[in-house]
């Protein structure tokens, strides 16, 4: 284990910067909290599990505009209602046993 010694003033400055970063993060996420409370949002894995599709098939749905999504911090989220609507009309591109999509 490596031990690094720093001056107390440097440590206090670092601690203050981390507190400011935490406050900025909390204020940024507050903007989106109402959006996430209005409707259930799903990530890639949850959508794949619900629809029983591969990640590649999900990407095809996004590319073709069949399933809308929102990105937050480089992560995609999908409205549960949009996923349910796509399931209701049927899945136009279903992965086969090789993980490839049939078009």
UniProtKB/TrEMBL annotation:
* UniProt cross-references to InterPro entries, sorted A to Z: DNA-bd_dom_put_sf
Q: Does the keyword Coiled coil apply?
A: yes
Q: Which residues form a coiled coil?
A: 4-31
At the top level, the lineage of the source is Bacteria
Q: Where are the transmembrane segments?
A: none
Q: Any idea which UniProt keywords this protein has?
A: Coiled coil
What protein name applies here? Helix-turn-helix domain-containing protein
Q: Which organism is it from?
A: Flavobacterium flavipigmentatum
